[in-house]
Write a structure and sequence with these properties.
With about 375 residues, the chain is mainly β. The protein has two domains: about 5-200, Methylamine Dehydrogenase, Chain H (7 Propeller), CATH 2.130.10; about 210-370, no CATH class. It has strands at about 5, 10-15, 25-30, 35-40, 45-50, 55-60, 65-70, 75-80, 90-95, 100-105, 110-115, 120-125, 135-140, 145-150, 155, 165, 175-180, 185-190, 195-200, 210-220, 220-225, 230-240, 240-245, 250, 255, 260-265, 270, 275, 280, 290-295, 295-300, 300-305, 310-315, 325, 330-335, 340, 345, 350-355, 355-360, 365-370. Strands 20, 22, 24, 25, 27, 28, 30, 31, 33, 34, 36, 37 and 39 form a 13-stranded parallel β-sheet that branches. An eight-stranded parallel β-sheet has the order 21-23-26-29-32-35-38-40, with no helix packed on it. The chain has a four-stranded antiparallel β-sheet with strand order 1-2-3-4, with no helix packed on it.
C-alpha cells in the first residue's frame, strides 16, 4: 500500500502495490469494511487524491508507460495516458488544484502535469534538467508546490503553468513529501538529510499592489491590476480588495475586513476565507479557468452579474467546493457561462435570473426566486 486520501463519499481510499506486479485501489469505510478494485494488469497505482468532481484520481506507472487513473466511488476505473510516456515512466504525487483540475509530478518526463476532470492532459517542463519532481500539494496561496528529489529544490507552479524553483540549503537532501502546515507555510521531508524543512511565505508591503504569493497581514486596500496574479493564503487584509481588468485573485483561508470587487477581471478562487463586506464579480471575459467561491463566509451580499466565465458558488452535486455562508443576498444575474450553486446558506434572498446555464441544489435561504427557486 502507498497513497491514501479521504473521498467525497466519506470513506478512505488507498493505492495497492504488489511485489508480483500490478495492484489496485482500496476503499475502507469508517466501520473498517474494505473493498478492493483491481487496476489493469501490470499497472502500479502510487499516489491518490480526491478530485473536484467527487471521484478519486491516482497516478500509475508501468515498465513502459504511465497514466492518470480516475475511479468513481462505485469503483469504475478510467485511465488517461500521460504525454511524455516512455520506458521507465514514473509518476508520483497528485493533488487537486484551486483551478478545478488535478496536478501531478511526472518524474520520468521532468514535468509537472495538469489533467482536467474530462481527462485532458497538459504538461509543463521543470526548468532544472533531471530535477525529479516527486510529490505535490496545493498551497494556500493558490499555487501548487512540489519537491524535486534530484534537484534539491522546492518548485512552485501557478494554475497557468509558470514554474519557479527555490533551492534547499542542504545539497543532496532529496526532498520528498510536501504539505501545508497549520501556519500556512510549506513543510517537506528531506530523505537523505534526515530533516524536516519549512518554506514560509510573506505578506506584501503595505500600500503596494498584490502581484505574487503572500501570507500574513496586509494593512490597507489591496489592488490587483492587469497582468497581475495575487495569491494570498492564511492571512488578513484590513481593507478592500479591488480586482481590475486582466487581474487574477486567489484567496485561501484569508480574512478581508471590507469588500472584494472585480470588474472584467480574469479568474478568481476564494477558498475557506471570510469577507466582511460584499463580494461582487461582474463582466468577466470568456475563455478563463473555472472561478469559484468555496467554504467561505461573506458578511454582506454575493453578486455575480454578466460573467462569461464558468463559476462554482459551492458545488452541486456536492464535491470539493463546499457551500458558503452568505450574510445578505446571493444574486446571480445574466451570466452566459455555466454556473453551479450548491449547498450555500443564505440569510436573505437567493435570486437567479437571465442566466444561460445554471444548476444547483442543497441551498437554504429566506426566499428563493427565479431560476434558483427550486435550488
Amino acid at each position: 500500500m502507498y497513497g491514501i486520501a479521504t473521498g467525497a463519499d466519506g470513506n478512505v481510499w488507498f493505492t495497492e502495490l504488489t511485489s508480483s506486479g500490478g495492484g489496485g485501489i482500496g476503499k475502507i469505510t469508517p466501520a473498517g469494511t474494505i473493498t478492493e478494485f483491481a487496476a489493469p494488469a501490470g499497472n502500479f497505482p502510487i499516489a491518490i487524491a480526491a478530485g473536484p468532481d467527487g471521484n478519486l484520481w491516482f497516478t500509475e506507472s508501468t515498465a513502459t508507460t504511465g497514466s492518470i487513473g480516475r475511479i468513481t466511488t462505485s469503483g469504475a476505473i478510467t485511465e488517461f495516458p500521460v504525454l511524455s510516456s516512455g520506458a521507465g515512466m514514473t509518476l508520483f504525487g497528485i493533488a487537486a488544484g484551486p483551478d478545478g483540475n488535478l496536478w501531478f509530478a511526472d518524474q520520468f518526463g521532468n514535468n509537472i502535469g495538469r489533467i482536467t476532470p474530462e481527462g485532458v492532459v497538459t504538461e509543463f517542463s521543470v526548468p532544472t534538467s533531471g530535477a525529479g519532481p516527486s510529490f505535490i500539494t496545493a498551497g494556500l496561496d493558490g499555487n501548487l508546490w512540489f519537491t524535486e528529489s534530484s534537484g534539491d529544490k522546492i518548485g512552485k507552479v501557478t494554475p497557468q503553468g509558470a514554474i519557479t524553483e527555490f533551492s534547499i540549503p542542504i545539497s543532496g537532501s532529496r526532498p520528498a513529501g510536501i504539505t501545508v502546515g497549520p501556519d500556512g507555510n510549506l513543510w517537506f521531508t528531506e530523505l537523505a538529510a534526515n530533516n524536516i524543512g519549512e518554506a514560509p511565505l510573506a505578506a506584501p508591503d503595505s500600500g503596494s499592489d498584490c502581484n505574487g504569493s503572500y501570507s500574513g497581514t496586509f494593512a490597507g486596500n489591496l489592488t490587483v491590476s492587469a497582468g497581475q496574479v495575487c495569491n494570498y493564503g492564511l492571512g488578513s487584509i484590513t481593507g478592500n480588495v479591488q480586482l481590475n481588468k486582466g487581474g487574477q485573485l486567489m484567496l485561501s483561508r484569508t480574512d478581508v475586513t471590507g469588500n472584494v470587487q472585480g470588474t472584467a477581471n480574469d479568474s478568481y478562487s476564494i477558498q475557506s476565507s471570510v469577507i466582511g463586506g460584499n463580494l461582487q464579480m461582474n463582466n468577466m471575459p470568456p475563455n478563463q479557468p473555472l472561478s469559484s467561491v468555496c467554504g467561505s463566509t461573506v458578511g454582506g451580499d454575493l453578486q455575480l452579474t454578466g460573467n462569461a466565465t464558468a463559476t462554482h458558488i459551492g458545488a452541486f452535486p456536492a464535491g470539493a467546493c463546499a457551500g458558503n455562508q452568505i450574510g445578505g443576498n446571493l444574486q446571480i444575474m445574466n451570466n452566459t457561462a455555466a454556473i453551479q450553486v450548491g449547498f450555500n446558506k443564505v440569510k436573505n434572498t437567493l435570486q437567479c435570473q437571465g442566466n444561460s446555464a445554471i444548476t444547483g441544489g442543497g441551498n437554504t435561504a429566506m426566499q428563493k426566486q427565479g431560476q434558483c427557486a427550486a435550488f
